[in-house]
Amino acid sequence: MVGNHLLQLIRRNAIQVLVTPPAIPVGKIKSFGALGPKYEVGHALRQLEDGDWMVEVTLVESGEKVEYRWTRLSDDPEAH
User: Fold this and answer.
1) pTM across the whole model
2) Does residue 70 sit within a domain?
3) How do residues 32-67 score in pLDDT, each as one tens digit?
4) Are 52 and 69 in contact (CB under 8 A)?
């Protein structure tokens, strides 16, 4: 009985674990690859099942807001 209670407690606590997003360079202007369009980096939106994060970015030319993976964003160069 104690083992069952402990397992339930562990499961309940696992749901309450806070996950800190990576340090997002909010406000930086980057480009999709070396020659791609420019975008402004926004805030982390949510963590994905694979551990990556979705980040909101704003396309500079159109103002459109889209979601972009953190792992891809972190590889993109700063725009000049």
Assistant:
1) 0.75
2) yes
3) 999 999 999 999 999 999 999 999 999 999 999 999
4) yes
